[in-house]
Amino acid sequence: MSFNNLDNLYRQVIMDHYKNPRNRGSLQDGSLTVDMNNPTCGDRIHLTMKLDNGKVADAKFEGEGCSISMASASMMTQAIIGQDTDSALKLAHIFSEMIQGNDLDDEEEDLDLGDIEALQGVSKFPARIKCATLAWKAMEKGLKQHQ
Description:
It is built from 5 helices and 3 strands, in the order H-E-E-E-H-H-H-H. By secondary structure, the protein is an alpha+beta fold. The chain has a single domain (3-146), classed as Sufe protein. Chain: A (Alpha-Beta Complex). The longest helix has 21 residues, at 126-146.
């Protein structure tokens, strides 16, 4: 597959998550809640997660922002549901490294990131990195506060 076709596919995945967000909404009943915003561009997220026996049993988000920010939140919630908290935090670390254009080690490189991989091109646009990482930073903050 040529670079242009791959780039186009990644754009389609991002736009699909933006137009049809997964896990949009809010959880109740003792859920972990984190509110964060990016003051430089106005993106904001309200993330709720339900933890059960050290696992992320459910995660939902609400917010406003650019397509990258909202698509990233959709992808992130899909990726962490069912994961234990350590795995979710490790995934956040891998995502952060990828989005900043840093090299991943062999183990990280072999991990199937699914739709999240579509965001790797954001590393070419430093001003958009904060957009892509907002939901992930909210998740990290919530899980670390819970520990």
